[in-house]
Amino acid sequence: MDMCHGQLLPEHLANILLDSLLQQKRVNHVQLGTFAPCATSIRLADQHHVGDGGTALEVGPLLSLTRLASLRLVDMKVGDRDCAGIAALTQLTELDLRATSVSDTGVQGLSRLLRLHRLDVTWTQATAPPALSSLTNLHMENCWVGGEVALRVLHSTRFPNLRELHMSMTQFDDAGIELLRAFCIDSAPDSSANNDVVKCLTDLTNLRMLSLKSTEIDDAALPLLQSLKGSLTSLDISGNNITGEQAPEQSWGRSRLHHLRHK
């Protein structure tokens, strides 16, 4: 019997039972098939695997969970090839791939997830998120970011609804650092390839939370951050080279900012 359509297993109960089985490492293909019509959330960690043995994630069984809205695969052995299967779960609104082996190759394949709101690729090899205008919450902490990826991550035409951007402890190559500094420039020569980049952050009018902790930004970034004071309510720039000569509290003046960390 289809337990969900037969109303014997409500959605919230299916999620609880499935989580319990995963914690006990007792889930298999058959059980996943049983939960398929009703489960909307699944959380896996490094100690779990789905399938008939081995330590790597087998995406096949997950494809039966077509109603999944939330999928967390923290520290799982998930690679780029697995992303193709994950991209078939088109109902996903939340995807957590922290500390997995995915890179840009796999992450770009997630562009089919048109309902995705929250994406976390912290501690991965990804240097750019998929171009999804639906994203409202993006975590790219402890990632390596180059010049091109800065444009992809922050360009408003790609992420017009972005409300939270977390890039704490993100590492930048020389080009990436120059692009971040270019954000602070009010104007640039027409010949500059950075013209579009300069406008990226200021065009993110829905951005409410920004974390740039330990990203090696300095006082030169403050004018850029000031340009966001009309929208931001939370800003973390602690662990950086802010000297205090331009006190952030004074430079922001009256704004909507409720939470500021800079030391």
Q: Could you characterize what this model shows?
A:
- By secondary structure, this protein is α/β, with parallel strands linked by helices.
- The protein has a domain of 128 residues: Ribonuclease Inhibitor (Leucine-rich repeat, LRR (right-handed beta-alpha superhelix)).
- It contains 10 helices and 11 strands.
- Strands 1-2-3-4-5-7-9-10-11 form a 9-stranded parallel sheet.
- Strand 9, helix 9 and strand 10 form a beta-alpha-beta unit.
- Helix 6 packs across helix 7.
- The protein is elongated, with a radius of gyration of 21 Å.
Beta-strand fraction estimate: 5-15%
At the fourth level of CATH, the homologous superfamily of the domain at 136-263 is Ribonuclease Inhibitor
**Can you tell me the residue ranges where pLDDT is under 50 for at least 5 consecutive residues?**
49-55, 182-199
Morphology call? elongated
Q: Give the number of DSSP strands.
A: 11
- Any idea what the radius of gyration is? 21 Å
Query: CATH topology of the domain at 136-263, anyone?
Result: Leucine-rich repeat, LRR (right-handed beta-alpha superhelix)
* CATH arch. level architecture of the domain at 136-263: Alpha-Beta Horseshoe
Secondary-structure element series: HHEHEHEHEEEHEEHHEHEHE
GO cellular component, one term: axoneme
InterPro entries: Leu-rich_rpt (IPR001611), LRR_dom_sf (IPR032675), Zyg-11_UBL_adapter (IPR051341)
Pfam families: LRR_6 (PF13516)
Main location: cytoplasm
